[in-house]
């Protein structure tokens, strides 16, 4: 899902970036290489300004859910400045069924949003076809999912918090030790449990796709966590001062 405002400068830059990120080593598509479908919701509903990124996320989510990729309206001729980066890309002009993907792989959409005030964002939307969980985050006995410890590539975010850098490092060390002793720990449930715990001033987050990788990252981060310091809160009693803002992409300030 491209930002795709139709500008003569922005669109070629975005197309070049997409080509270089997803197909960095191929000037021409290799035989059997899949095309990457690229479109923008702006051709369907126009530019919604401050909610343009959210509109792209909603389109991506619906496309993933229904397995149908919406058409890009009013596309007649490719911008000549985009053509050098169009080898692997295709703009769908009709509603398109989701391309075939390997068994067990999720549908996935990357969403670009480049705000003219300098706020740039990228989101990745992915399908979820696993077991349904109850509100408390655990599977029912009949569902009994296989613990996700390695090999599925989905990964997760594991958040720790404490009242000091030393305490945060100690929590990381404790969790790393536990994972080494219990390599079959269900990472989904671990991530859920950590998110449910109270949040303290010192926080750290780790991503991993296996217990071994998570333990490795926890151990590697302990030295940094010990020396971390909390940024003090600015007292409300301070007098107002002049702030200079440099937006980067525009002069809205």
Keywords:
253 residues; alpha+beta; Peroxisomal Thiolase, Chain A, domain 1; Alpha-Beta Plaits; 2 domains; two-stranded parallel sheet; two-stranded antiparallel sheet; 6 helices; 8 strands; globular
Structure notes:
Helices cover 30% and strands 14% of the residues. β5 (108-114) and β6 form a beta hairpin. It has helices spanning 10-22, 42-45, 52-66, 165-181, 187-196, 211-226; strands spanning 36-37, 68-69, 89-90, 96-97, 108-114, 120-126, 156-162, 202-208. The protein has two domains: 10-126, Thiolase/Chalcone synthase (Peroxisomal Thiolase, Chain A, domain 1, 3-Layer(aba) Sandwich), CATH 3.40.47.10; 156-226, Alpha-Beta Plaits. α4 runs antiparallel to α6. It is globular and about 60 Å long. A two-stranded parallel sheet has the order 1-3. It has a two-stranded antiparallel sheet with strand order 2-4. Strands 5-6 form a two-stranded antiparallel ribbon. It is α+β, with helices and mostly antiparallel strands and 253 residues long.
């Amino acid at each position: 899902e491209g930002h795709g405002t139709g500008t003569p400068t922005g669109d070629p830059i975005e197309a070049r970036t997409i080509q270089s990120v997803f197909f960095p080593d191929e000037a021409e598509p290799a035989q059997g290489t899949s095309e990457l479908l690229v479109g923008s919701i702006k051709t369907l509903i126009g530019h919604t300004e401050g909610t343009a990124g959210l509109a792209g996320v909603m389109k991506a989510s619906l496309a993933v859910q229904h397995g149908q990729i919406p058409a890009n309206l009013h596309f007649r001729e490719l911008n000549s400045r985009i053509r050098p980066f169009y080898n692997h890309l295709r703009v769908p002009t009709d509603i398109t069924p989701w391309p075939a993907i390997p068994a067990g792989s999720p549908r996935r959409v990357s969403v670009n949003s480049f705000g003219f005030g300098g706020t740039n964002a990228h989101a990745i939307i992915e399908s979820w076809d696993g077991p349904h969980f109850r509100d408390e985050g655990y599977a029912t006995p009949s569902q009994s999912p296989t613990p996700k410890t390695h090999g599925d590539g989905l990964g997760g975010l594991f958040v720790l918090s404490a009242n000091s850098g030393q305490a945060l490092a100690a929590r990381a060390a404790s969790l790393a030790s536990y994972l080494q002793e219990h390599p079959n720990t269900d990472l989904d449930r671990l991530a859920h449990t950590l998110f449910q715990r109270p949040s303290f001033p010192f926080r750290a987050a780790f991503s991993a796709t296996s217990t071994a990788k998570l333990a490795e990252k926890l151990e590697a981060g302990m030295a940094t966590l010990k020396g971390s310091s909390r940024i003090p809160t600015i007292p409300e009693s301070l007098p107002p001062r002049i702030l200079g803002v440099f937006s980067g992409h525009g002069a809205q300030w």
